[in-house]
Amino acid sequence: MKEFELIKRYFAEQSITRKDVVLGIGDDCALIQPTERQHIAITTDTLVAGVHFPLNTSARSIGHKAVAVSLSDLAAMGAEPAWLSLAITLPEINEHWAADFSAGVFELCEFYNVQLIGGDTTQGPLSVTVTAQGYTPYDKYLTRAGAKAGDWLFVTDDIGDAALALLYIQGSVDIEEVHQANIQTKLDFPKPRVLVGQVLREYASAAIDISDGLAADLGHICSASNVGANLILDNLPLSLAMQESLPLMDAYKLALTGGDDYELLFTVAADNKVAMETALATTGVKITCIGQLDSSHKIKTLLNGESVFIDMQGFEHFTDK
Questions:
Q1: Is residue 85 located within the same domain as residue 179?
Q2: CATH of the domain at 228
Q3: Within-domain flag for 227
Q4: Three-class SS of residue 265?
Q5: At how many degrees (to 10) do helices 248-257 and 214-225 cross?
Q6: How far apart are CA 238 and CA 242, in angstroms?
Q7: Which of 137, 171, 191 is at the close of a domain?
Q8: Does residue 160 contact residue 255 with C-beta atoms inside 8 Å?
Q9: How far apart are CA 183 and CA 163, in angstroms?
């Protein structure tokens, strides 16, 4: 099988055909017809084998995750996903692998009404690059820069499970069998919080998705918004797997620095807090208040009301190891 046959068989045929796509896969460019009075949000993410996912990760998981991480960026802006471009580099063409990979891609595309409109295939070490685009209302979108001192800090769902799964894969921690499947799912099949992001457009002052670790991504909000934060460790939403597999302080550190959660971290002014909680109750996604912003320009961690030190360096490319 050659490149164009691969594209035709596994990527050109899809169930989603959006009305705003004038021309999709098969030409030199895709053509789209944007909706009036809407911003187009655009994000690009690359996943590299051995860096962003273990080498033995299933093809379906890689396809799912490649889409999920980009949709998570759109969610953090409050955007509605619309289109994807996919560039994939493969060591060789394996039809079974390609079928599973495309199934992982399209299951999220179908769920969120996203159309794959183009991309590229090349030969080389395995990597996947997705460019995702979506809409936000002209005057309503989220950024990292709108938070104010006094705003409350929230996070969706539990945090740290994906990082815990990676530690288990690496043989660094023992996990009870009852928890293994759940944490592996968190690592391999993250859930982009698209609906939550769209609801938060009306209430949140700032938002970001957690990819490099909660502490690092909170640092991005604080830097962009020129604020600091009091982070309450007692309030961090930890799963039973986290609580039962690690000493408590180790669990806190992993939750803050592990990354790969793809949950939303967001801030809400006190006046919007109750309305936000009521609105998000309809999404079925758990949210937890984990602190409050201040004007200190520093992130402080508190346990039982007392300041404690935790090394909160998150993941960053091109750093010394």
A1: no
A2: 3.90.650.10
A3: yes
A4: strand
A5: 50
A6: 6
A7: 137
A8: yes
A9: 9
Site of tokens 């769209």: 198
CA distance 35 to 195: 20
In a domain, 320, yes or no: no
Check whether residue 297 and residue 168 sit in a common domain.
yes
Sign of CA dihedral 92, 55, 81, 223: negative
**Helical spans, DSSP H, in the chain:** 3-7, 59-76, 95-112, 161-169, 177-188, 194-200, 214-225, 240-245, 248-257, 273-280
pLDDT tens by residue, 25-78: 888 888 989 888 899 999 999 999 988 899 899 999 999 999 999 999 999 999
Q: Count how many residues are written for the chain.
A: 321
Are residues 303 and 201 part of one domain?
yes
Residue with tokens 């971290």: 265
Is there a contact between 302 and 233 (Cβ–Cβ < 8 Å)? yes
The model's pTM: 0.91
Tell me which residue range forms the domain holding 190. 152-308
Residues β-bridged to residue 228: 294
- Give the count of domains, the chain: 2
The CATH number of whichever domain residue 63 belongs to comes to: 3.30.1330.10
Give me the sign of the Cα torsion angle 199, 315, 236, 177.
positive
How would you classify the pairing of strands 264-268 and 152-156?
A: antiparallel
- Which pair of structure tokens corresponds to residue 191? 């859930």
Neighbouring C-beta atoms of residue 46, cutoff 10 Å: 15
Per residue in 70-95, pLDDT tens? Answer: 999 999 999 999 999 999 999 998 89
What span, in angstroms and rounded, lies between the C-alpha atoms of 50 and 54?
A: 5
